[in-house]
């Protein structure tokens, strides 16, 4: 039974991987990766990694792939020609490199001195109990005791990545001049001069005001006074 | 099933992902192939964790998943920024780092 499930899931995972590499339309590539991830979750279940399998399906095949689908829809899922324009020598070399890498990995895996590789693994507590191998109890306890530092660093990394993605993908003022000037928004009247631009992000509000035209700077007397910190000295 | 079978499947998926990174031209698909390689590494980690009967390898796999999610987020942000700037979505055309 376990053998049949293993071969089904393994074939599904490999077929999904080949689909990602070989399909032309990026949208179908994403769908192939989803099927690959679900098959891989089945393999994780066979290895009694229940929590990782659940996280794989929910987080990876669910959330991350939705992000991919949105970006493919935004960029435009146009068909790309497979292979480089200038000759197919590069493609041949890449395929050869892949084959050599596979042979090397197989030599490393199958020729290993680890005798446990040829066994079904160590005896572990079966699923169902509170201290079962790979259960959410065990993973959670490890994450909050032995691997607490890695857990906290991972949370900070996620925060930094979220902020970085927003900074990278936001709409910058003045980047696409023709498109931005053709459209008129009520915020153009209401917002102070220079806000929402790259100049403001880099140099703060003061430099943004300095870059703004003089008439708009006059409309902000407080900010203009802050720019020249010593007006009484000039009076004398 | 023997652990060696899982490691062989992992090696095969890693190889396919590496070949995809080298051959594909769309940065979106290159990111997908990077995901393939990370998942192959995850499968090997979990197989070795099962071999030792020790759940610490599974924690390692979860951290790898977190890092992969961060990489995807930033990579997709870069692709959206490229699209905004009308740059070609093609890794062969983007061969210079010009601001």
Overall body shape of chain B = elongated
Q: What's the count of strands of chain B? A: 0
Rounded mean pLDDT score of chain A: 77
Helix content of chain B: over 70%
> What string gives the helices and strands of chain A in order?
HHHHHHHHHHHH
Q: Name the overall outline of chain A.
A: extended
Q: In angstroms, what is the radius of gyration of chain A?
A: 28 Å
Number of strands of chain A: 0
SSE string of chain B, helices as H and strands as E:
HHH
Written description of the protein model:
Helix content of chain A is 69%, strand content 0%. With 236 residues, chain A is mostly helical. The radius of gyration of chain A is 28 Å and the shape is extended. Chain B is 77% helix and 0% strand. Chain B has three helices and no strands. Chain B is elongated. Chains A and B meet through helix 1, helix 2, helix 3, helix 4 and helix 5 of A and helix 1, helix 2 and helix 3 of B.
